[in-house]
């Protein structure tokens, strides 16, 4: 998932959480803020309810919303889910101890997802 959605602009003077935004202000939704509260640790409980079912968080909208919603959202979600599930069942993923980890303290810049830092992973078969 890209950290930023499409750029938007305010259509009228407004304020949000104490910030005044005049008409035409550039608005860039940042998905990472809502997804990675603790990027150093994997926290599946943020996406799984107490009954063990996937909990859809409405504020995470990678396929847009409203009339511009992705027509193939369900297919894409199912495909991603199946790919990742099978990968985690079949393989074990570990950071390469001989290579440096990317910094988690570097602020996210616009379009960083186009050229992410190098990250080396050792993938081994679980069987």
Automatic annotation (TrEMBL):
GO biological process: organic acid metabolic process; xenobiotic metabolic process
Keywords for the protein's UniProt record, in alphabetical order: Iron, Metal-binding
Pfam families hit by this protein: p450 (PF00067)
Single GO term (MF): steroid hydroxylase activity
Any one annotated GO CC term: cytoplasm
Matching InterPro entries: Cyt_P450, Cytochrome_P450_fam2
Family from the record: Belongs to the cytochrome P450 family.
Protein's UniProt name: Cytochrome P450
